[in-house]
Amino acid sequence: MERIDRASRVIAAAPTTVYDALLDPEALEAWLPPDGMRGRVERWDPRPGGGFRMVLTYLDATDAPGKTSDATDAVEVGFAELTPPERVVQRAVFEADDPAHAGVMTMTWQLTAVGGGTQVTVTATDVPAGIDQTDHQTAMASSLANLAAYVEAAERADG
């Protein structure tokens, strides 16, 4: 059975502001890494068929060894769909020797205007079996909290 992990949050920012943060490499480095990690974008091509490579580094790899190395998770992400300002679909492949982390995981970011902001729902399908579901959903919720803080601060600065 195909595994689906999901997280959702209302963010007090316009859909266009949230969408822009999904397609800006500096923004991604700031908000995408969940608590306990930092990220670095190494390649960037923001168009359907393009993508990026991100290296996520654990701040403390003692209890959470990485998929790519002891302290890192490297992921190749392709943009399968870009529909401003409503939807971004990504195909993610982790660089890992362990077959439990192999395969293509699809990440769909759905943005829906709601009173006072944007409902952001991220849905991960075909999640590799080696990724713990509870940990993954916690990490997605952490990334959404980071995204909210990032874009809400930008909205306040612009407003």
Automatic annotation (TrEMBL):
Domain Activator of Hsp90 ATPase homologue 1/2-like C-terminal stretches: 13-152
Pfam families in UniProt: AHSA1
InterPro entries according to UniProt: ASHA1/2-like_C, START-like_dom_sf
Listed Gene3D superfamilies: 3.30.530.20
Coiled coil: none
Protein family according to the UniProt entry: Belongs to the AHA1 family.
Full protein name: Uncharacterized conserved protein YndB, AHSA1/START domain
Source species: Micromonospora siamensis
